[in-house]
Write a sequence for this structure.
């Protein structure tokens, strides 16, 4: 599926759905990890993804006053992959999936930006930049999780000593 073939309202609905799904995933991870620093990072990611959904809703309202934004039940994973977390899914796998999702979100927003007027384009480019910062933070956590087997389970002082 190509961004160019979908309407702006449909793309915005998909983006909001993906942001809400990411918010839920990161909130779930807050409850799964014990490392307080990692817990804080997942809380921040969940908060920001929720804010992105609000920003996108506001963008929709500014473009289509009086219309209701329709959210799909799920998003095409080729455009915006989601993170699948099962009880046995380890931290490294979650971080790997999340990195792919954030990278895809950045590309999605950059593609969407090309179809918008300057004021709206700036909002979406901002979101793409934030998604890139999420990717970089997750990449750092991914490397730590690979290096320290019990990184998710303990205070960092206990992990590195």
């Amino acid at each position: 599926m190509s961004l160019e073939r979908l309407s702006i309202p449909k793309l915005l609905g998909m983006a909001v759905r993906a942001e809400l799904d990411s918010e839920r995933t990161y909130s779930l991870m807050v409850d799964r990890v014990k490392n307080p620093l990692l817990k804080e990072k997942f809380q921040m990611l969940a908060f920001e993804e929720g804010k992105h959904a609000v920003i996108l809703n506001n963008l929709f309202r500014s473009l289509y006053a009086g219309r209701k934004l329709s959210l799909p039940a799920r998003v095409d994973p080729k455009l915006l992959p989601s993170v699948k977390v099962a009880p046995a899914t380890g931290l490294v796998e979650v971080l790997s999936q999340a990195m792919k999702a954030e990278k895809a979100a950045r590309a999605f927003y950059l593609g969407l930006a090309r179809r918008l007027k300057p004021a709206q384009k700036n909002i979406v480019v901002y979101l793409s930049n934030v998604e890139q910062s999420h990717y970089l933070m997750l990449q750092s956590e991914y490397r730590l999780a690979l290096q320290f087997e019990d990184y998710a389970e303990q205070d960092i002082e206990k992990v590195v000593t």
Q: What stands out?
A: The mean pLDDT is 93. The longest helix spans residues 118-147.
